[in-house]
Specification:
There is one protein chain. α4 crosses α10 (225-232) and α12 runs parallel beside α14 (352-361). The protein has helices at residues 3-7, 29-38, 45-59, 71-84, 88-91, 116-119, 136-142, 165-174, 192-199, 225-232, 249-264, 267-287, 316-325, 352-361, and strands at 12-15, 64-68, 103-107, 124-128, 147-153, 179-182, 203-207, 219-223, 291-295, 306-310, 329-334, 341-343. The longest helix is centred in the C-terminal third of the chain and has 21 residues, at 267-287. It is globular. With 365 residues, it is an alpha/beta fold. The protein has a 7-stranded mixed β-sheet, sandwiched between helices. A 5-stranded mixed β-sheet has the order 1-11-12-10-9, with helices on one face. Helix content is 39%, strand content 16%. The structure holds pyridoxal-5'-phosphate. The site of pyridoxal-5'-phosphate has 13 residues, from α4.
Length: 365
């Protein structure tokens, strides 16, 4: 019996997204192999961290990188780095920061659940703008002696009313304040791994367990050497606010293998695979009376399509519910206006596509 059978946990078909609640993503054999190899030997964790960071930086065309236990942990670690720099006395004082760097500036229209990870450093959250707009002068006014960093979330979920990232970087850089970009799920395109650092962001955060298909509890920060060195003081085996977010040697190894694999993928073929799944689902269901369409871009603005399906005689919320309650359980997304079931090809296995189509054809009335 498999571990899930022994625990009596049902397995799911993930047609939704790289959702944490569903397990993030599935690790390919290369990643599992690296984790298994890593599990057979003791190493010096600081040395492994440093070498893994160097490898990820090289692969992603960045100056430096550091591994974290996920993108949420990276938000904490990057904020902490901006408060403490490489001053070990300051490192040991979080979450009660001393000294002048107390503020993190955020765009009010980008506030989201993950920013608790920023607040837990003890930093003071300073909001600017609103959902109707954010002006450059508002950012200028918010930056003072006390500003540790400015945050930016690249996602279509948080773009309404946001100042463009270029402007944020221009204003903050002129005042020597680091900009931290959260791009956790913002792949593909692969170029995003270096796009924001090339634009001038000091640190950029990615999740290891989403599109990259590394361990679910892994992630990394890429960026400028000085800031990544400060991050190191919050991720290692030493005592810091990042200690409860420790990354094991197996996860570090798995993440490196996942990034290596992602960089060597045929991204055009991968995109074609997703287009093919979307057009097959749309085609087969349209023949059976569904309204279908290719949606673009991906759920938070990524460069891939999803399928939107709906019926006149059954609300999308009910279709979604029936898919979830059936056997096997199929988890889908829902459009923001709740009028369409959204089927995301990102994590679908080849043999799951006919299952989903079959289930939708027999959804009932
Ligand atoms: C998923 C996500 C995170 C958290 O990622 P983990 O790797 O699961 O910690 C943080 N920020 C954003 C914008 C995300 O989408």
């Amino acid at each position: 019996m498999s571990i899930y059978e022994r625990l009596n946990v049902r397995t799911l078909i993930n047609a939704a997204d790289s959702n944490t609640i569903l397990g993030g993503s599935l690790m390919p054999p290369e990643v599992l192999k690296a984790m298994e190899e890593a599990s057979r030997h003791f190493v010096n964790l600081e040395e492994l961290h440093r070498k893994a960071g160097e490898r990820i930086a090289e692969l992603t065309r960045n100056e430096a990188a550091v591994v974290t236990s996920g993108a949420a942990a990276a938000l904490t670690v990057a904020t902490a780095a901006c408060i403490t720099g490489t001053d070990i006395r300051k490192v040991r004082k979080l979450p009660l920061p001393e000294g002048p760097k107390h503020d993190a500036v955020l765009l009010r229209c980008q506030r989201n659940g993950f920013d608790l990870a920023i607040a837990q450093t003890g930093v003071n959250m300073v909001e600017i703008g609103n959902v109707e707009g954010t002006a450059a002068w508002e950012l200028e006014d918010a930056i003072t002696e006390r500003t540790a960093c400015v945050f930016y979330f690249v996602s279509t979920l948080y773009s309404q009313g946001a100042l463009p990232l270029e402007e944020v970087i221009r204003v903050a850089s002129a005042r020597n304040v680091p900009v931290i970009v959260d791009a956790a799920a913002h792949l593909p395109p692969v170029e995003n791994l270096w796009r924001y650092t090339e634009m001038g962001a000091s640190m950029v955060i990615f999740s290891g367990g989403k599109t990259l298909r590394g361990p679910q509890s892994s992630g990394f920060i890429v960026g400028k050497k000085e800031w990544i060195e400060a991050c190191r003081l919050h991720v290692g085996a030493g005592i810091s606010i990042g200690r409860p977010m420790k990354v094991g040697k197996e996860e570090i190894a798995g993440l490196v293998a996942a990034v290596e694999r992602y960089m060597s993928l045929d991204h055009a073929a991968e995109k074609q695979r997703m287009e093919r799944i979307v057009s097959e689902i749309c085609g087969k269901l349209a023949e059976a009376g569904y309204k279908t369409r290719r949606r673009y871009p991906g759920p938070t603005g990524q460069d891939y399509p999803t399928a939107g399906v709906s019926r006149n005689d059954l609300p999308a919320t009910e279709i979604k519910r029936r898919l979830e309650n059936g056997d096997p359980a199929v988890i889908t997304g829902l459009s923001r206006d709740r009028s369409e079931v959204v089927i995301n090809p990102l994590h679908l296995q080849e043999d799951e596509v006919p299952v989903i189509i079959e289930r939708l054809l027999n959804i009932g009335s």
